[in-house]
């Protein structure tokens, strides 16, 4: 195993590329820009993340469905703001074999138009509401920005949940539920903290009334939007005629929301938040290999080999994903390999361990070695998943807390952002009127953006907008983004 040892904070970009390679996660050598191959280690972890999200969606009354991946141009154009926002990124299918198609088909960049075409047929009565459906699907976007595996691909897989309601209040409650789901999976289970912002008018989803975005913060000081959820209002139900007959016999349009956790991006944030100079660090739940046993042999030793096999059997009987590494590599090489792969615990068995009926366990989350009696192994294994999850979450939250600084001027924003931190500033407005100031800010700070106000944190702005000097109505957060 080659040396890794790249400092994540100093050189995140190189660190991230290297970990994708060395932990055998994602391979960008496929010869189409922005289309990457996910190796078994990545797919395993991404599946686990998908399962956690799907579990929560099902728990909150969503049913899973599946929709086509090609959209006729005429359907894609039905909602004006939506097509305006997405058109520059659509991949088009224009031929079937040698024949030109009568109408070109867009490869789904997002599924509103596909799903609502069907919702208009499936939703008929007030009895059908609330209507809560999700799908897991790939989407395609011809990104014009620099592509980066997992962070910005032209093809990626995600979950989209699309819900319909009778009232605006119910739709707004759904937005809260989406945020709660993101919180429970991404922060509680995966230990990745994020801010939940209400996006400014000029940065909302094309076709939405309001957009709320969860932003993780990468080690290079850039925001990474993980899921976002949108209050769509009736914009799409009007365009797609998604109506229901109410109790009073009247035909009414539904209120809609959509929520799109992009699993690849959540995975990227997960790798970046917990990984270190030795490789991946994973929670017990997501790790492809949970425990690795390394016999410490100096030549042949039947007792050690026997103990290693016994321990493996004990763990297998408890359904633990365990590997006994009895390869030719040296113990040091094995340690490096499994640390790179993020195996949460390593069990070392040598002469001392056999003699004293003990096991030496090295934890990947804390880096500490623990010694336990062999008899205590089953108990240890029951307790360790929760300990690791809490530890990783705690470490991540400690780092995340201290990175916001107040800025009084645009110049200060620039300095704060250049130090890899988040600037907090007074702002005139996050409605359309504030866009002029946002454009000035972005051009004068080499790309920093207003991410929004923190959702549900009623922060009182005192003073003037840092750009135009008008009375500030909002407190906003500013940083660079992926
Ligand atoms: Zn202003």
Structural overview:
This protein folds into 3 domains: 12-67 and 81-92 and 108-274, 2-Layer Sandwich (BirA Bifunctional Protein, domain 2), CATH 3.30.930.10; 291-383, Rossmann fold; 404-481, Translation Initiation Factor IF3 (2-Layer Sandwich), CATH 3.30.110. α2 crosses α6 (168-189) and α2 packs across α8. The mean pLDDT is 95. With 482 residues, it is α+β, with helices and mostly antiparallel strands. The strands form 5 sheets. Strands 9-10-11-23-22 form a 5-stranded mixed β-barrel. Strands 16-15-17-18-19 form a 5-stranded mixed beta sheet, with helices on both faces. It has a 3-stranded antiparallel beta sheet with strand order 4-6-5. It is built from 14 helices and 23 strands. Residues 428, 434, 437, 465, 467-468, 470 line the site of zinc ion.
Helices and strands in order:
Layout: H1 12-22, E1 26-27, E2 37-38, H2 40-59, E3 63-64, E4 70-72, H3 73-76, H4 80-86, E5 92-96, E6 99-107, H5 112-122, E7 131-140, E8 155-165, H6 168-189, E9 195-198, E10 210-217, E11 222-233, H7 235-239, E12 243-245, E13 251-253, E14 255-259, H8 263-274, E15 291-295, H9 302-317, E16 322-324, H10 331-341, E17 345-349, H11 351-356, E18 358-363, E19 369-373, H12 377-401, E20 404-406, H13 410-418, E21 422-427, H14 435-444, E22 449-454, E23 474-481
Bound molecules: zinc ion (ZN).
Attached small molecules: zinc ion
Overall, the morphology is globular
**Which structural class fits the helix and strand makeup?**
alpha+beta
Which consecutive residue ranges, at least 5 long each, have pLDDT under 50? none
Strand numbers in spatial order across the main sheet: 9-10-11-23-22
The radius of gyration computed from the alpha-carbon positions, rounded to a whole number of angstroms, is 25 Å
Measured distance between first and last alpha carbons: 31 Å
Please name the CATH architecture of the largest domain.
2-Layer Sandwich
Helix content: 25-40%
- Give the overall average pLDDT: 95
Which strand-content bin applies to the residues?
25-35%
The CATH class of the largest domain: Alpha Beta
């Amino acid at each position: 195993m080659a040396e890794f040892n790249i400092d994540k904070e100093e050189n995140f970009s190189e660190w991230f590329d290297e970990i994708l390679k060395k932990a055998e996660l994602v391979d960008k050598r496929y010869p189409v820009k922005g289309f990457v191959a996910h190796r078994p280690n990545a797919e395993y972890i991404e599946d686990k993340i998908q399962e956690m999200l799907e579990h929560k969606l099902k728990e909150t009354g969503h049913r899973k469905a599946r929709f086509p991946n090609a959209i006729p141009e005429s359907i894609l154009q039905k909602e004006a703001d939506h097509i305006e926002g997405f058109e520059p990124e659509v991949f088009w299918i224009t031929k079937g074999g040698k024949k030109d198609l009568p109408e070109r088909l867009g490869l789904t960049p997002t599924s509103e138009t596909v799903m609502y075409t069907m919702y208009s047929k499936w939703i008929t009565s007030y009895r059908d509401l609330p209507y809560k459906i999700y799908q897991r699907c790939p989407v395609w976007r011809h990104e014009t920005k620099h592509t980066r595996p997992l962070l910005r691909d032209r093809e990626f897989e995600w979950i989209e949940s699309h819900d319909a309601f009778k009232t605006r209040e119910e739709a707004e409650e759904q937005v809260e539920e989406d945020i709660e789901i993101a919180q429970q999976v991404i922060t509680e289970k995966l230990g990745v903290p994020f801010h939940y912002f209400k996006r400014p008018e000029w940065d909302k989803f094309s076709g939405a009334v309001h957009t709320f975005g969860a932003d993780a913060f990468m080690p290079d000081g850039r925001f990474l939007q993980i899921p976002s959820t949108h209050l769509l209002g009736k914009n799409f139900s009007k365009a797609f005629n998604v109506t229901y007959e109410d109790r009073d016999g009247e035909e009414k349009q539904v209120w809609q929301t959509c929520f799109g956790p992009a699993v690849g991006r959540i995975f990227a944030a997960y790798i970046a938040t917990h990984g270190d100079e030795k490789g991946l660090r994973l929670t017990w739940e997501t790790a492809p290999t949970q425990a690795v046993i390394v016999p410490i042999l100096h030549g042949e030793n039947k007792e050690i080999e026997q103990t290693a096999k016994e321990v493996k059997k004990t763990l297998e009987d408890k359904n633990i994903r365990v590997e006994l590494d009895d390869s030719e590599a040296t113990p040091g090489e094995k340690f490096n390999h499994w640390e790179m792969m993020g195996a949460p615990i390593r069990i070392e068995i040598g002469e001392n361990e056999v003699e004293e009926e003990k096991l030496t366990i090295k934890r990947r989350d804390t880096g500490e070695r623990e010694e336990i009696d062999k008899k205590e192994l089953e108990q240890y294994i029951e307790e360790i998943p929760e300990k690791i999850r809490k530890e990783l979450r705690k470490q991540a939250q400690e780092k995340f807390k201290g990175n916001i600084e107040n800025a009084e001027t645009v110049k200060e924003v620039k300095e704060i952002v250049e130090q890899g931190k988040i600037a907090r500033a007074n702002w005139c407005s996050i409605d359309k009127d504030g866009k002029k100031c946002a454009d000035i800010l972005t051009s004068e700070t080499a790309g920093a953006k207003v991410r929004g106000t923190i959702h549900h944190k009623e922060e009182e702005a005192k003073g003037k907008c840092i750009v135009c000097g008008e009375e500030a109505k909002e407190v906003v957060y500013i940083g660079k983004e992926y």
